[in-house]
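Structure tokens please, single chain.
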Amino acid sequence: MHTPPTPPRPAAIGAVTLIFFAVALTLRIQGITTRFWLLEDQMRDWWIALQPFSELPLVGPPTHVGGYTIGPAFYWILWAVRVSLGPWFDNLPHAGGIGHAVLQSGADALLVAAIWRRTGSPWPALIAGALLVTSAYDLALAALVWNPVMGSVLAKTAIALVLLDWHRQSLFRAGLTALVAWAAVHAYTGAIYVAVSVFIAIIADPFLRGDRTQARRNLAIAVLATALLQLPYLAYRFSSQFRAEAMGAVSGSVGRILTGEAAPEITKSLTGYVGAVRFIEFAPWNAPLVGWGLLACGIVVAVRYRDDAPLLAMTLLPQLLAVAGYSLFLASLDHYYYLSVMPAAATTITIALWAVTPRRVATAIGAALLIGTLAAAPAKYRLSTTFHRMPQYGLLVEASRKIKGQGQPMRSIRTEFALPPTTDPEYLFKVLGGRIDRESPWASVITADGDVRYVQIK
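Here you go.
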């Protein structure tokens, strides 16, 4: 069975991953105070995070397909971000974006350390990390208050913990790994494919090593972790008298397939996954052979690491489960559905390339691949600035501060410039502590240059 190589120079791993974290965080929060994406979901969820912990929901955010996610872990984490970082930024919502970026960058750094330890080389680790961090789509979303992003953060963390063999070190660590994996499902249902893979890894690993007792213990701790995290959901279901159903649209698709009304859409799911990898990891380049490349890399990893069950479970299994799972979802598939699976895809690609690299030229090829990945970063960064940005955010912040400084309740606040349809120009004023009074004789108009005009209503 696989025994992870002893990592050379642990201090070097720590230093490099710390630098990696700092660079990733800097890229992600660049300009966030002036272009934070403030739409309906962000306003709703940040407003919830501003409440006392006891008032947080017992379930997660509503989903666009109906229902809600099955637990409150996303709101718990967002609340912790607000408490720790919010006061430094007047509790404005971009503090939540910075918190997301911190957690995302920390998860990436942990994954880099995990791959480094697993392979005994920094090259596949740094290439995988660079591929994930420089993704244009990731850069556009990473500093955003949005639950699919948090699902990706937690899923990535769980993958890294398994690759670090945390589940082998103690029953407590096995349980913590399971908790992180299931919390990812709380945040975003699409993380279920990683969570199931994590559970399989921590149970199958000791079983295949002949330690049946440990396998049973890990199974029990995984079940217990899941059950504990579902207690708030059960409380919510009882309090609502079982009226509100989670993920009704998803269960509807599965129901239609089980009754024979519809068939699984394997081709659509496979095409959707390949398209997601192409867009998320390689845009602005088309990369037409991504599908065949993923297949070839998967075969290499399956053969080369056939005795390493945890690694196979963290690379190949989430991708296979995602393709199978989304074939049961009969609606259209968006790229962000696959965010939680991208660490598995990137790790598969880089470990496969490393596995077929001749040892005598490994350093040269590893350095060349890393340089090539970094050379593509500027174009990806430029693309990331073209979507999921709200350039009016900075103007709204400064104008809201000015209006709040008047100490006068406002009947309304509007802008002379266009905002996205779901953005409320009064929101930041209320977050800052301002009061909207529909009987107030004063209203405010924010001009295109960020100045404020006050209108008295007689």
